[in-house]
Amino acid sequence: MRVIKFGGTSVGTPDGLNHIKRIATLTQEPVVIVVSALSKITDTLIELADATANSRDTSKMIDAILTRHRKAITDSVPENNQQNCLDKILPIIENLKREVATYNTTSPTQERLSQLHQNIVCYGELLSSVIVHNIFDHNAFTTKHIDSREIIKTSKYFDRHIINFSQTNKLIQNNIPNQGITVMGGFISSDAETKQTTNLGRGGSDYTAAIVAAAIGASQLEIYTDVDGFLTADPRVVEKSTLIEKIDYCETMELCNFGAKVVYAPTILPAYLNNIPTYIRNTYNPNCNGTLIHNCDPCDTPTPQSITAVAPISLIEIKGRTTGLNYKIFRLLASKGIENYFARGDEHTTLIAVTEKNCQAAIAQLNTELQEHLTSQRIQNIVVHKNLATIAIIGNNIGSSNCVQAAIFDALKNVNINVNRKRISLGVNSISIVVPIECTRPAISTIHQALFESEKSCAKTPSANETFGCHIAIEVLRKMVAAGDVIRSVSAYFPEKTEQRAAILANHLGVEIDNTQPDNCLVEFEITDGVGRFRVIEDITTTPYDSNGTILIYSARYREYPLHINL
Ligand code: ADP
Ligand code: ASP
Ligand code: MG
Are residues 197 and 88 in the same domain? Predict the structure, then answer.
């Protein structure tokens, strides 16, 4: 079975709805279609809930919602289904009106307000899923429509609702038929005990699709959106961003956690745990295969994949002897559903970045939780730095790569962005940096240029990333020459793609390669006296090379102690 999810941008246009029909019927396999609300409808519903809570006039808003859905029906639902579709839509709109009319605005509590919001925002997916169900000819296809609240169940966990997997999995398995086309709304759910409407958080339809795919053991999960897949950066920020064809589950999780909005962060875990190949594809571009998220072969080579940013954020600096208290701090934030977008713990400071929206709540919680330590002066104070952004560069093993770090910080320096050392955090697969908010775009652009664009201009191999280390060396060589240094020789050990990488280095230095790479043995590559040569190495441990690969540059200035670039 396939599970395919369409975002608001896909269900929001007649063209998009036609593509949904095409994509769902591409194969004979049974398919579950998970849909978001029509684009911008969830935002309108949030405004509607606010207007309701504040006793403002809501009739025009509800009329506009109805008009938008009526238009979608006339534009995209086949004529013989239109009346049936409208007959289902109108009672849903009546329920929405009732929800608004019966809300008692006197003595509002936080809990009642939150329930009002949850009751109202679910209407986007309730309406869109009925329309998508009706775009299919019911005589030609076996179809089923499901109100997702009946099968996606949540339970209260501290202040949040989280999926109750034991109930949800059973309900999905019992209610989704192993044939035909099933259509359901994403994002919406209900409380396993109280049956009250809940939801999975903004952007949560992706998560619904992954939960369903995992429960039914889908052959694949496909998330359709308005871009070709995961790109090296958000295309709205970096025009030259390019498609990532394949990416590992864990790297994707990091990317999403650091704000790459293309997929809602919790989505990847169910797919990862059940090893479901997951594609991100463009609804409007059938010629593009998209990005495949899967279990990549473990590989040590540092490989930057993408840059992402979260802004505006506030950096909370907890000063004092925080060692031993960090678990408390992070558990507290997690239990309150406050995501953190940067974390660094040194002996005398812990730094955490939270969205500006969550900052006040985070500070209040921290002050309460750490009260005794503030009184005893173990914690001296908690300081907030505002108007900042977190930029994260994600990729296999890049946290420990000197090359990647050098490229990033050189690039930032070139555009006069100096990063305080304390505002850098290195993970295994991530490097995150906190910068002033106004630096976000220039920082992303310059890092993108350094990591992905300059590389591309000379990369002749299928994947630019595979030759990454070479291009860092080339940048270094360029800079050395520009600074008046004279290159004497370069020698390198590449555990993979040796011939391609050697060719790139030779090409840059304008030299010919004198011999071919000997087979089945360890080799180094050396450029000296205007020629490149491969040479057999007996034992890597007796050389200056690192087993992940190293490039050594000898120059007039670096004669005895060569510049050492570990890949
Ligand atoms: P949908 O309505 O389909 O769920 P979203 O708006 O949630 O779509 O996500 C798609 C958007 O994510 C794209 O239009 C793009 O601007 C943005 N985006 C952010 N980071 C990336 C990235 N690294 N690669 C691709 N798209 C990205
Ligand atoms: N409609 C919801 C939102 O806009 C869920 C989604 O689109 O995934 O957040
Ligand atoms: Mg989305």
Answer: yes
pLDDT of residue 464: 42
CB 480 within 8 A of CB 555: yes
- Residues at CB less than 6 angstroms from ligand 1: 7-9, 36, 203, 225-227, 230-231, 233-236, 260-262, 306, 308
Q: Cβ(252)–Cβ(298) under 8 Å?
A: no
Q: What angle do CA 145, 148, 152 make, to 5 degrees?
A: 145
Distances (CA, A) of 390 to 206, 315, 319, 386, 430: 24, 9, 20, 12, 12
The finding on whether 267 has its CB within 6 A of some atom of ligand 2 is no
Virtual torsion, Cα 507, 511, 517, 522, nearest 10 deg = -90
Domain of 562, in residue numbers: 468-566
Higher pLDDT: 479 or 219? It is: 219
Whether the Cβ atoms of residue 526 and residue 488 lie closer than 8 Å to each other: no
pLDDT at 337: 86
Q: State whether 28 and 165 are in the same domain.
A: yes
Q: Do 481 and 440 fall within a single domain? A: no
Amino acid at 223: I
Question: Using CA positions, which residue lies closest to atom 22 of ligand 1?
Answer: 234
Asked if 549 and 489 sit in the same domain, the reply is: yes
Shortest CA distance to 393 belongs to which of 328, 308, 471, 469?
A: 308
- Residues 56 and 163 reside in one and the same domain: yes
* Cα(187)–Cα(533) distance, integer angstroms: 59
Q: How many CB atoms lie within 10 A of CB 440?
A: 19
Residue 244 counted as domain residue: no
Convert 381-391 to b/e letters by CB count within 10 Å (16 or more is b).
ebeeeeebbbb
Rounded Cα distance, 230 and 61, in Å: 35
What's the token pair of residue 282? 């463009």
Overall pTM > 0.85: no
pLDDT at 490 over 80: yes
- The alpha carbon of 295 and the centre of ligand 1 are apart by a number of angstroms equal to 22
Tell me what percent of the residues of the chain surpass a pLDDT of 70.
Answer: 96
Write the CATH number for 316: 3.30.2130.10
Binned at pLDDT 50, 70 and 90, residue 549 comes out as: confident
